[in-house]
Amino acid sequence: MNYCLYCHEAFYEPVSWRFITRLSEAMPFCDDCSSSFEAINGEFCGICGRSFTLFPEQYRQKHCCTDCIRWEEGKEWSGVLTKNRSLYVYNDFLKQIISMLKYRGDAELIQGFRAPFRKLYKQEFRGMLIVPVPLSVERHYERGFNQAQLLAELLGDEIIVPIERIIHEKKQSKKSRKERLDIKENIFQASKEAEKIKGKSVLLIDDVYTTGATIRQAAKVMLEAGALEVSSMTVGR
């Protein structure tokens, strides 16, 4: 018998040969909760990974969404992010999960993403240097952990921290879209480990990709520090 990481209800996992031989991990969520996740399948933006089913056709140009086209048209941000890939649509259910994780301190929920997060990493990014998006000192102290760091640890490979956050902002969830895109100065700078990324392909890890502003600011600093390319991977998009 398992207990759902989200609703805490007891449930029995379906018996299969993979379950019997322990080739698969125990199910972290019950069927009801599992069915509330919206996996990103089918066609999606080649840069940010957003599902094309989520917006009208006029907001798409070939393989890109208009958001990414705007980013690429900006001289400062063109080519900064190679690609982002995410597990799930950031729907109301996933918002609740992320809220419990970040604002109620339920860090154990991270373990529910272990298997699919590792699978996506192996399919798309294996061999890249893993970099969790850092929190400010204030936010880390307040929360007690960095959710991006915990997600990065699920991948089982070496983690480096070549950047640090130097500006403490109000929570992203409290910002409007316009506020998130209004980048006056970069909130990151290179750290002492920046030497390790010279000439390397880097993978940024974070919980959610929303506008892409935070990811691109971090990527820009690492490219300036000598990284060959920067991509990102998140749970939600």
From TrEMBL:
Pfam families xref list: Pribosyltran
Domain Phosphoribosyltransferase: 152-235
InterPro entries recorded: ComF/GntX_DNA_util-trans, PRTase-like, PRTase_dom
SUPFAM superfamilies reported for this sequence: PRTase-like
Family per similarity comment: Belongs to the ComF/GntX family.
Protein name: Competence protein ComFC
Organism expressing this protein natively: Fictibacillus solisalsi
